[in-house]
Design brief:
This protein is of the alpha/beta class. Helix content is about 35%, strand content about 20%. The chain folds into 3 domains: about 190 residues, Rossmann fold (3-Layer(aba) Sandwich), CATH 3.40.50.980; about 80 residues, Luciferase, domain 3 (Roll); about 130 residues, 2-Layer Sandwich (GMP Synthetase, Chain A, domain 3). The N and C termini lie far apart (about 65 Å).
Length: about 550
């Protein structure tokens, strides 16, 4: 292995940086306690720990290419464990750090995992671990909850580095990423070393990413999006990764990292915006931005306060982002680039290029990705990141592809004159009103969610004359209701409903918004681990109340 271009997989890329840039810092990890307790690893140290853990895995004499699971929030040890698994000749099985015990059990049993790495986890682990067999060998990361497992640090202290790491062919299975299970049991998406490497190469070239770039890793590494744009890209290009300690310290972590590349989801971009508005009301901010001598100073101060003053590229994914939010950030000098992809193609599909943002569109395909729209309106994609298939499910694998090898995404879409893609809905989510009209809920949900009082929503109404929305209030709105402000919140939502309906064709007009008392979380099954709504769960929960809600004939109704 000579140059980076000679590397045939991401493992060889890591070995390249270990050899050619050993003393440059790769990881910066808070170890608890904020700035007072932050640890760094150079490339030599990070790959060295992975080599030592790989030696231990080899000593277990597991069957060749065994599946090894890892369950942890993002941390340096997550990626070192991934490298160790590959070095030892095995396959990594990421498990979301927020799952129900039955899904944990299903994933471990379906994948036939031989060992589990247990890492940095929230108290929900006490429930999750009920799905882990008592006799399954376990290794704990330093930041893991209290346990009696074999300890990472103790193991690497005793082991010698594995000198001859496994030679992984590009066509070899590298990882199985289980889908978030929004409908039924999760499916195991098999990804090859080639798919991961080509995806990393593709986005690096497309966005001109360099080893000097810094990234904060906090979206789940167990999900394809973060695994692609953070782990894979950093291993390929040699960039530095910074990790967040907790939700409470997130802003501090962001300011410590000062990332040049920052990827987030619409809900967090909205929270950032609301945080700015709490310190400076929108009307005052707009006035200051109109004063030429203050304009640049104010923009820079806001970006610096968010820890985003060094950002070259800012991305948003997983869900549509409202035009108003895109425009607001662009006004601050931060152009949010949207992307689109699936676990089934390692999220390597579409991305907006700087200067080509169009609201409602997720950009054009990467140069080596093909797209087309089927006669039924379904988006079909052929990508170098495409999966080998679903684990143990050849029938579902076959059904997911066209005869000429295009992945059937299940999403509906349209393409503009520049090749930019617009997602218009999900084929399986369409529902029919009693008037015989089909409604695509996702675009309407995006409109409803574009309000500071709304945290999340679902649009439903199959078999009724008009659809309706069920909303979960934002934290400040819930607090206002508790403090006697329910009438005010109701008026605000009614006004918002009127504005939303103005933007919709008549057959999509919402009859009302229903406000739920519940908090939707992955822990209670209302959201997937990637924070997408579980439509079937929400519809089965609130469906029985629909007749009463429609009968009230009010624009805003409250769950009793």
């Amino acid at each position: 292995m000579g140059t980076l271009s000679d590397c045939k997989n991401l493992l060889e890329c890591a070995l390249h940086w270990e050899k050619n840039d050993p003393n440059r810092v790769y990881f910066t990890q808070p170890m608890g306690g904020g700035d007072a307790n932050v640890k760094t690893w150079t490339w030599k140290e990070a790959v060295g720990e992975a080599r030592r853990m790989a030696s231990y895995l080899k000593s277990l004499n597991l069957p060749e290419k065994s599946n090894i699971a890892l369950c942890s929030k993002n941390c340096a040890h997550w990626i070192m464990a991934d490298l160790a698994i590959w070095m030892a000749g095995h396959v990594s099985i990421p498990i979301f750090p927020i799952l129900t015990a039955d899904i944990v059990q299903y994933t471990l049993e379906h994948s036939e995992s031989k060992l589990l790495f247990v890492g940095k986890l929230d108290p929900i682990w006490n429930e999750m671990k009920q799905g882990v067999a008592a006799d399954l060998p376990k290794i704990a990361f330093p930041l893991a909850p209290e346990n009696d497992h074999d300890q990472w640090d103790a193991i690497v202290a005793k082991q010698k580095p594995l000198a001859d790491v496994a030679d992984r062919s590009p066509k070899d299975l590298a990882t199985i990423i289980y889908t978030s299970g929004s409908t039924g049991k999760p499916k195991g998406v098999m990804l090859s070393f080639e798919a991961m490497l080509r995806s990393a190469k593709g986005i690096t070239s497309y966005m001109e990413i360099k080893k000097e770039d810094r990234t904060l890793s906090y979206l789940p590494l167990s999900h394809s999006f973060e695994r692609f744009v953070v782990e894979s890209v950093s291993l390929y290009v040699g960039g530095s990764l910074w990790f967040a300690e907790s939700l409470d310290t997130f802003l501090q972590d962001l300011q410590r990292a000062r990332p040049t590349l920052f990827i987030s989801v619409p809900r967090l971009w909205l929270k950032f915006q609301l945080g700015v508005f709490k310190k400076m009301p929108p009307a005052k901010l707009n006035r200051l931005l109109k004063i030429p001598i203050l304009n640049g100073i104010v923009k820079k101060k806001i970006r610096k306060g968010l820890g985003l003053d060094q950002v070259r590229f800012a991305g948003s994914g997983s869900a549509p982002i409202p035009k108003e939010v895109l425009d607001w950030y662009r006004g601050l000098g931060l152009e949010l680039l949207e992307g689109y992809g699936m676990t089934e193609n390692f999220a390597y599909s579409h991305c907006t290029k700087p200067g080509q943002v169009r609201s409602g569109y997720v950009g054009a395909p990467y140069p080596d990705v093909q797209q087309r729209i089927s006669p039924e309106g379904e988006i079909l994609v052929k990508s170098p990141g495409t999966m080998m298939g679903y684990y143990k499910d050849p029938e579902e694998t076959k059904a997911s592809f066209t005869a000429d090898g295009f992945l059937k995404t299940g999403d509906l879409g349209e393409v503009d004159e520049m090749g930019r893609l617009k997602i218009t809905g999900r084929a399986k989510e369409l529902f029919k009103t009693s008037k015989g009209k089909y409604v695509a809920p996702a675009p309407i949900e995006n409109l409803i969610a574009n309000h500071p009082r709304v945290e999340a929503c679902v649009v439903t109404g199959s078999g009724y004359p008009q659809p309706h929305g069920v909303v979960m209030l934002s934290e400040d709105a819930m607090l206002a209701v508790k403090n006697g402000g329910r009438e005010t919140i109701e008026k605000e939502l009614a006004a918002h409903l009127k504005e939303v309906n103005k933007k919709l064709p008549e057959y999509e007009h919402l009859s009302f918004l229903a406000v739920t008392n519940a908090t939707w979380m992955p822990e209670n099954g209302f959201l997937t681990p990637t924070m997408k709504i579980k439509r079937s769960k929400l519809e089965s929960t609130y469906g029985p109340s629909a007749d009463k809600w429609y009968g009230s004939r009010k624009p805003v109704v409250w769950e009793s």
